[in-house]
Amino acid sequence: xxxxxxxxxxxxxxxxxxxxxxxxSGFIFTQSDMGWVRQAPGKGLELVSLIxxxxxxxxxxxxxxxxxxxxxxxxxxxxxxxxxxxxxEDSAMYHCAKxxxxxxxxxxxxxxxxxxxxxVFS
Length: 122
Fold this sequence. Notes:
By secondary structure, this protein is an all-beta fold.
């Protein structure tokens, strides 16, 4: 079955950096679009960034533009999110997600992992 296991979160001071990792198994990673989804307390799921199977990247949260970078290593079935210049408003549970397209512009979250907590203090 599909398994997505995240790591790399933690407690960091504002302005710091973290690199989130996700190891994927149970599906053909190289053919799958992947993304990072976050959920802050009391808020819904928010798609931060996705990377298609062909490596094309799309970002969805303007506030992380230029600070967060998604990447993947198909040889290792790994997904990454490099987060720099972190701000307190970036605090959330971050989930790795396997994505699919319901329409050309509507994304399904097919599967997601348990998540890794990111807490940024000022």
